[in-house]
Design a protein that fits this description.
Elements (H helix, E strand, L loop, with lengths): L1 H6 L3 E4 L6 H31 L6 H27 L6 E3 H34 L4 H4 L2 H27 L8 E2 L6 H5 L7 H34 L4 H29 L8 H12 L1 H12 L2 H15 L1
Parallel strand pairs: 1-3
Antiparallel strand pairs: 1-2
Length: 310
C-alpha cells in the first residue's frame, strides 16, 4: 500500500493565480511587465556595480549578489506562472515540481541570509568606519557570500526532500501558482507532523535567526547614529541603511507570515496573494529602492545608460 501511495501521483495540477477568464489577460500583461522590469532593472544594476570603480566596495558586492538572486528567484516562478494563464492543462511533472521547489527555497533562503550579511556590513560601516576596510576585506565578503549560498542549498534541500518523500495518493491539485511547499503538504495522505516540524526548524534557522541578527545590527546602528553630533552626518548615515531596511521589511514580513505558522491555519487565497508579494514584487522593486535612494548608484546607472545609448 505504501508503494502504491508513493507512485500514484506522477504529476501535479496547478490551479494558478485565478480561474476567472476576465482577469487572466490582465494578470498576464501585468506580471509580464513586472518580470521584464525585474530583469532589466537588476541587470542594469549589476552592470553598473561591476563597471563603475567607485562601486567596487563590500556594500555593492552584496548588492550584486542580491540582484543576481532576484533575477534567478523571479525566473524560477514567473515564466511558468505566465504560461498557466493560457494553458488548458496546467500540469507539472513530479520532477519539475521538485526542481522548482528546490530552487525556490534555495534562492529564497540565500536571500534571507544575504540580507543579514548586508545588515552586518552596514553596522561595520557606521559603527566602525575606521576599521571598515580591514573587517570587511575581500576574503570576508566572499566567505559571507559562500555561507549564504551554502545555507540556501542545505535549507532548500531539507524543505524539498521532506515534503516530496511523503505519500500522495490523490488528489493531485495544488491550489497555487507554483509548487509551494505548504500547499503540497495539504495533498499528502499521511501524517505530515514530522515534515512540518522539519520545515519549521529550517524556517527558524533561516528566517528567525537572520532577522534577529538584522535587528541587533540595527539597534547598534541606531545607537551609533545618535552619537553623531551633526544632523547632516546623522542623515547621511541613516540614508545608507534606509534602502536595506525597506527591502528587509518587505522580504521578512511576508516570508515569516508564510512559513512560521501552522499549515492548518493557512488560507489558499490569502497565501497566493502573499506569495505574489515575496516572489514577484520584491525582485522588481529592489533595484528601484537601491538606485532611487543612492546617489552613487544613480550616477553609475546614468553612465551605463549613456554608454549603451551613445
Amino acid at each position: 500500500m505504501e508503494k502504491w501511495n508513493r507512485s500514484s501521483v506522477t504529476e501535479f495540477v496547478l490551479l494558478g493565480l485565478t480561474a476567472d477568464p476576465n482577469l487572466q489577460t490582465t494578470f498576464f500583461v501585468l506580471f509580464l511587465v513586472m518580470y521584464i522590469v525585474t530583469l532589466i532593472g537588476n541587470m542594469i544594476l549589476i552592470t553598473a556595480c561591476i563597471t563603475e570603480p567607485k562601486l567596487h566596495t563590500p556594500m555593492y558586492f552584496f548588492l550584486v549578489n542580491l540582484s543576481f538572486l532576484d533575477v534567478c528567484y523571479s525566473s524560477v516562478i514567473v515564466p511558468n506562472m505566465l504560461a498557466q494563464f493560457f494553458l488548458v492543462k496546467k500540469t507539472m511533472s513530479f520532477s519539475r515540481c521538485a526542481a522548482q521547489m528546490y530552487f525556490f527555497f534555495l534562492l529564497g533562503i540565500t536571500e534571507g541570509v544575504l540580507l543579514a550579511a548586508m545588515a552586518y556590513d552596514r553596522y561595520v560601516a557606521i559603527s566602525l568606519p575606521l576599521r571598515y576596510n580591514v573587517i570587511m576585506s575581500k576574503s570576508v565578503c566572499i566567505t559571507l557570500s559562500v555561507f549564504c549560498w551554502l545555507s540556501g542549498s542545505v535549507g532548500g534541500l531539507l524543505d524539498t526532500v521532506f515534503p516530496l518523500t511523503l505519500s500522495f495518493c490523490g488528489p493531485n491539485v495544488i491550489d497555487h501558482f507554483f509548487c509551494e511547499g505548504t500547499a503540497i503538504l495539504k495533498l499528502s495522505c499521511v501524517d505530515t507532523f514530522v515534515t512540518e516540524m522539519v520545515m519549521l526548524s529550517v524556517g527558524t534557522y533561516d528566517l528567525l535567526i537572520p532577522s534577529l541578527l538584522i535587528l541587533i545590527s540595527y539597534v547598534c546602528i541606531i545607537i551609533a547614529i545618535l552619537r553623531i553630533r551633526s544632523s547632516g552626518g546623522r542623515y547621511k548615515a541613516f540614508s545608507t541603511c534606509a534602502s536595506h531596511l525597506i527591502v528587509v521589511t518587505m522580504f521578512y514580513s511576508t516570508a515569516i507570515y508564510m512559513y512560521m505558522k501552522p499549515t492548518s491555519k493557512k488560507s489558499a487565497n490569502v497565501d497566493k496573494i502573499v506569495s505574489v508579494f515575496y516572489t514577484v514584487t520584491p525582485p522588481m522593486l529592489n533595484p528601484m529602492i537601491y538606485s532611487l535612494r543612492n546617489n552613487d548608484v544613480k550616477m553609475a546607472l546614468l553612465q551605463v545608460i549613456r554608454r549603451r545609448v551613445l
